[in-house]
Structures are given as structure tokens and as C-alpha cells.
Amino acid sequence: MENTLRQKARELLEKGEVKVVIGYGWNKRKTHTTPVFITKPQDVEKLIFNPLCVNNLSLYLTRKFPDIKALGKPAIVAKGCDIKTIAVLISESQLKREDVVILGMSCNGVVYKQELWKGELKPEIMPTKCHNCDVRNPHIADIIIGEKVNFTPPDTPAGMVFDKIRELDKKSNSERWDFWIEHFNRCIKCYACRQVCPLCYCERCIAEKNMPQWIETSAHPRGNLAWNLKRAMDLTGRCTFCGECERACPVNIPLNLVNQKLALVVKDAFGHKAGYDEKVHPPMIVFNMEDTEDFIK
Amino acid sequence: MSEHTQHEHSGFEPKIVAFVCNWCTYAGADLAGTSRMEYKPNVRIIKLPCTGRIDPLFIIKAFEKGADGVLVSGCHPGDCHYTTGNYHARRRWIAFKSLLEFTGIDMKRLHFSWVSASEAIKWVDLINNITDEVKKLGPFMEYKNLNV
Fold first, then answer.
1. Among A114, B10, B26, B58, which is most buried by a count of CB atoms within 10 Å?
2. What pLDDT, on a 0 to 100 scale, did the predictor assign at position B1?
3. Which residue from B57, B102, B147 is facing A176, i.e. has the nearest CB?
4. Is residue B68 classed as helix, strand or coil in its secondary structure?
5. What pTM did the predictor assign?
6. Model pLDDT for residues B114-124, shown as the tens digit of each residue
7. Domain region containing A281
8. Which chain A residues in 130-169 lie under 8 Å from chain B, judged by CB atoms?
9. Euclidean distance between CA atoms A56 and A51, whole angstroms
10. pLDDT tier, B3 (very low <50, low <70, confident <90, very high otherwise)
């Protein structure tokens, strides 16, 4: 699989079809994977692919990284879940489909955190998204690398994140409030969730605007709640559950819960699942005359 | 949520913030005024061009600044001055309402309605009902406690 990947990457670079290949490589001690940017054909040996390749590299296709854009047309090594994010970026006109070469990787799942890796991929160390994955064989790709994977996701979403959502749904308002305030109170406003999210690409974030100050900058419970609600709201119908925000959070706020809750709401209310079709508009920029209004008096 | 709010609030007057659109609900409230209809004075009206202009942050900010209840109101579907603003707003509210519910905010504190320019009576009833409902709930102590 890695050899095919390197061969395809070399071909693309030698032919000049792409100027840079964005992929995964080892760190110096070969314990963790790290993003690599290959611009010369002789460097393709650095490319790897294994269950430690958890990062969502589509982040590097956004306008957050103008110096990577300046390199020229990219090819990107992407798992099915990363391709979902690329599809959303294309549907939001952040990228043209023909301006990126997607090297889709067949995937058997990744680890939740690289530290958990003990040389074997067990279901216990896989994130919820992998247990519910219906894109283990990439759905949008120029070149598919790896053998076809046979995996059927469960009909109802299973795994820790969805179990916890169902558990919270059953609780009372005050229990839910206490749960979230306890978590949000830990927020230190580092904005790692925003920086790592491939879909948070505004050039100027509302959190940085101060006339008026919509979101307080100090790590105070009031501003923390406002920030986390705003972040979740802006990802409504767009979040593809790559899980990078929760993975990046230094204080372990369960951001996947709130993102996936909204994804479930959007699926029920508007019948939309983010990231499956790059030609469909995101649900929050369109409307349907028949949208429910049972809550409007 | 009520266990947080069980303290003496006799004589408590709730603060209700109403985000209304310029063309329908504001005109409806204006009609109620010019018709000399009386309604509860707890409501603070904020006029915006259209419900589509109402960012979820407005509602969060209202609660931060001490509102006990929030009302969002605009033109009936099909009547929007800008043709489709209220359809977009409706979609946003569906998601935002679910988000706030999931965070544990009582939906008796956040109300949505359509009030047209001729529905002064509907406006009066709406404000009276919301005020009574929020009065029963008491001050929004959960949110106010975040300010400490």
C-alpha cells in the first residue's frame, strides 16, 4: 500500500501534474506520524500510511495556509473521513475539485490518539467515527490506493460519542447544564479547536473582533459558553466528524458530543449529511419552504 | 432547572428581550401602541432589518447581559420584506434551539414567533404570556451565576 502510494506520488510529481504532495510521514524517532509536504520526486520515500495517520490533512488546503497554496497544485493523501471535509470545502467554494488531486486511501480505521498505539489496531483504541465509517473505501478520489475494505457500519450510530449523546438527551435540563458548564469552565480559550478545524477558515474570527466584543477574550465561564456555542453553531450541517477539535483540546472538552448532536439534528430536520456530495449546498445556506415550525408561535 | 431558581422572587419582574424585524413584528408592536393597547412593560424591543439578520450570538449576548427570557419574532413565511430572510432564520433557529436545549437551557426562556404588521392583538397576548411564563420560572440564575 505504501509502495503504491509512493509510486503514484512520484509519478504525479515527475509529470508535473502536482507541485506538492501533502501526506503523512514519521517523526524523527518514528513514534508518531506528522504531516509532510513532498515537493521533490526523490523525497517520496518519506510518505507512509498506517493506523497512526489520524490527522485530517485537508486543513492544509484551506486559506489558513497561504504558503502551502503558493507552492502550486497539491495532491493530498486522504482517508474517507478526510475526503468528506474536502467535499465540504469544495461545496463552500474554498477549493475547486480540479485544483486538487485526491489520493484516496482504503482504510481499516485509525487510533483515537497516537499514544494509544501498541502495534495492533483494536476496536477499543479506535474513535467512534471509525466504528460508524461508511467511507472506508474513499467515495470521492482521483486515485484509490489499497484493497477494497468490506465493512458495514451499524444502522443506528454506535460508539461512545453517540451513547453519551443519548444519555444526555435523557437527562433533565439542569443536569445537562451542569454537565456542560463543568466542561466549558475548563476551557482556556486557546482556540486550538478552531485552529485545527479544516472548516473554521474565516480570515477574521468573531472571537477576535472587539468592536463590539461579542465573545469575551478571558477564560471566564460566561465567555467560554458563548465561544463554545458559537463554534458549534457555525459548524452546524458542516462538521464531518473528523474529531480533530476534541483531539486537539488540551483540557478534554467533549466537543464531538455537541458537534454530533447538531449533525443528528440536521440529518433529522433537513435530511442532510455533510461531506458526501461536493455539489450539494451546505444546509444552513439554503432553506426549504416545508421546514418544520412547530416551535414557532 | 427549577431547583437552582428556588428562592424568594415575589415582586420579581423578568427582563424580556425581543429581537423583532422592522417590517412585520415591529410594525405590529407599533400598531398595538397606536391602538392604545396595554401590555406588560417587561419587554425590551430591539429592531433589526429582518429576522435573517439575527445572529445566534445576539441571543447569547442578551442572556449574558441579564435577560431572563428572549423572544425572536418576524414576518410570517412568505411575507418577508426581503423575500426569503425568515426562511433562512427559521432554519438557523431549528439548529440553535436544539443546541441550547442540548446545553440545558429551558426552552420556556426562548420563544420564536411570527407576528405580522396587523397582528397587534397577537403581539399583546404573546408578550403577556411570555412574561407570565418567565415570571413563574424566576430569574435566569444559571446564566447569571456565570457572571460571578
1. B26
2. 45
3. B102
4. coil
5. 0.91
6. 999 999 999 99
7. 160-285
8. 168-169
9. 13
10. very low
User: Is A230 inside any structural domain?
Assistant: yes
pLDDT in tens, A249-283: 999 999 999 999 999 999 999 999 999 999 999 99
Question: Cell numbers at residue B106, please?
Answer: 429551558
The verdict on A186 and A89 lying in the same domain is no
Rounding to the nearest 10 degrees, give the CA dihedral for residues A18, A20, A24, A28: 150
Contact A179, A137 (CB under 8 A): no
Query: What residues of B are in the A interface, CB distance below 8 Å?
Result: 1-4, 56-57, 60-61, 64, 77, 84, 87-88, 90-107, 111-114, 126, 142, 146-147
Task: Please tell me if residue A206 touches chain B, with a CB cutoff of 8 Å.
Answer: yes
* B90 contact residues in A (CB cutoff 8 A): 287, 291, 293, 296
**Which CATH number characterizes residue B117's domain?**
3.40.50
Which element (helix H / strand E) includes A8? helix A2-15
Q: Do A292 and B94 touch (CB under 8 A)?
A: yes
Domain co-membership, A199 together with A227: yes
Residue A294 in domain: no
Comparing CB atoms, the residue among A270, A291, A297 nearest residue B112 is A297
In whole angstroms, give the CA distance from residue B72 to residue B89: 10
ipTM value: 0.91
List the one residue out of B89, B69, B70, B81 whose CA is nearest residue B117.
B81
